[in-house]
Specification:
Blueprint: H1 2-23, H2 44-62, E1 66-68, E2 75-76, E3 83-85, E4 87-92, H3 99-112, E5 116-120, E6 128-132, E7 138-143, E8 150-155, E9 159-160, H4 163-177
Antiparallel strand pairs: 1-4, 2-3, 3-9, 4-8, 5-6, 6-7, 7-8
């Protein structure tokens, strides 16, 4: 019975810490980070593709099955309607035998790519790695602590661009990829 209480307590601590990290809150009471708009423009397709490739690279490094929760539509950032960013998350479906080794490998990979890497740990079982990109983007890898499953999330930098036009193009691309209706079982 005591073991279950510790495990539930660890899960609660993990969820609370994750909420603080994801919302951008820190012990100093900082507000959510508002990204600065990059000076140079970027092709939205390249921006989201680069994000997804890096998330894919973490998946490949870790191995196993992951659930993709990538946003196919951009987020607004900077002045409303004048800038965009993308985000994505991947959630591991299997346990990792050595969570510290995975966190070390991802940190090393991100450092080799020139990202500024920092580590966070709020408990013996927690391994968090953050990579800050030169364009203002960020990647974050963390485990939940109870069963050593990881997630990795990423946000691109904020780039100038016509947000509504980019959304329109992304929705058009999605519509072309997905069938308008599913086939009838009787056909």
């Amino acid at each position: 019975m005591v073991h279950k209480k510790v495990r539930v307590g660890a899960s609660v601590v993990g969820v609370l810490a994750l909420m603080l990290i994801v919302t951008g809150c820190s012990s100093e009471g900082d507000a959510v980070r508002v990204p600065e708009v990059n000076k140079s423009s970027a092709d939205p397709v390249k921006v989201k593709t680069d994000l997804w490739r890096e998330l894919d690279a973490v998946q490949e490094l870790a191995g196993g099955e992951w659930t993709k929760q990538d946003s196919r539509i951009p987020n607004q950032c900077g002045k409303p309607g004048k800038a965009f960013s993308y985000n994505g998350t991947r959630v591991m479906q299997e346990q990792v035998a050595d969570p510290k080794a995975l966190a070390d490998a991802v940190a090393k990979s991100w450092e080799e790519k020139g990202f500024t890497v920092s580590r966070q740990s709020f408990a013996e079982w927690h391994f968090g790695v953050t990579a800050h990109l030169k364009d203002g983007g960020e990647f974050y890898l963390s485990n939940d602590g109870t069963d050593h499953r990881f997630f990795v999330s990423g946000t691109t930098g904020c780039y100038p661009g016509d947000y509504l036009e980019i959304v329109k193009n992304d929705k058009k691309e999605l519509k072309e990829r997905e069938p308008l209706s599913s086939p009838s079982p009787s056909e």
